[in-house]
Amino acid sequence: MTTKIILSGACGRMGRQVAALAEEGAIVAGVDVNPRQDFPFPVYPSFSLVREEADVIVDFSRPEALPPLLAYAREHRTAVVLAATGYTDQDVAAIAAAAKEIPIFRSANLSIGVYVLKAIAAQAARLLPDFDIEIVEKHHNQKIDAPSGTALMLYDAIRRQDSVPVFGRNGRTQKRENTEIGLHAIRGGTVAGVHEVGFYGPGESLMITHSAQDRSLFARGALRSAAFIARQAPGEYSMDDLAKSLLA
Ligand SMILES: NC(=O)c1ccc[n+]([C@@H]2O[C@H](COP(=O)([O-])OP(=O)(O)OC[C@H]3O[C@@H](n4cnc5c(N)ncnc54)[C@H](O)[C@@H]3O)[C@@H](O)[C@H]2O)c1
After folding, report:
1. Is 146 exposed, middle or buried (0-12, 13-18, 19+ CB in 10 A)?
2. Are residues 152 and 228 both part of a single domain?
């Protein structure tokens, strides 16, 4: 059965990718603060105007969209895929509270390849405790947040108890400690997304890199996540849960 979707951030770069790749008729409505009507479904400037019934909201907008989105989802018992990045601690707490009533899938990176990068990098960090770790990410010149949500997710996956994140080294006048994990952001052109976790040891280094060639992989990931989350009980879900279901 087709999963019916409300697409939040429909008119953005990612929203348009999702609209282009979704099964015909799957997207029943869009929401965007700057609505354009060049889709085969209506696009509303706010959730309060949506009249169509859906199973899932897929969000590729901004963290500011979260309060009305969660209010709508709770009221209508709609599952949610949160693909936007840059959430604050307060946002994360609001998501956890809403997940007591509705199923919410959240991932800063919906690529299955990045999921595998995270798993391999976490294992490499355990196997190479004396190596220095530096995360470098590259994105197009329109990206607003830095470092990327994916870089922060990779940091969380590889960090040890005493790890300290170091965002760039500008102005630092002391040598690097092994407990540091560097995070560095490069912005330019149309790069869809590159994430490299580098392990630097005595006389050798190991780079694990994922490159997104275009944005379609994130849109495919969002549609796969939407089909998955529509079938779940209330709670918070991540790529770990999706990967488990794909392997089962
Ligand atoms: N999870 C992933 O795999 C993944 C992949 C790519 C991008 N992203 C994230 O998705 C988000 C969107 O990326 P993009 O490149 O499409 O950005 P974009 O700027 O092209 O599109 C964002 C859209 O959201 C709309 N918008 C802004 N505020 C809104 C609000 N309060 N309510 C409703 N709509 C609102 C804008 O008008 C715009 O059309 C970013 O946070 C980006 O980091 C996540």
Report:
1. middle
2. no
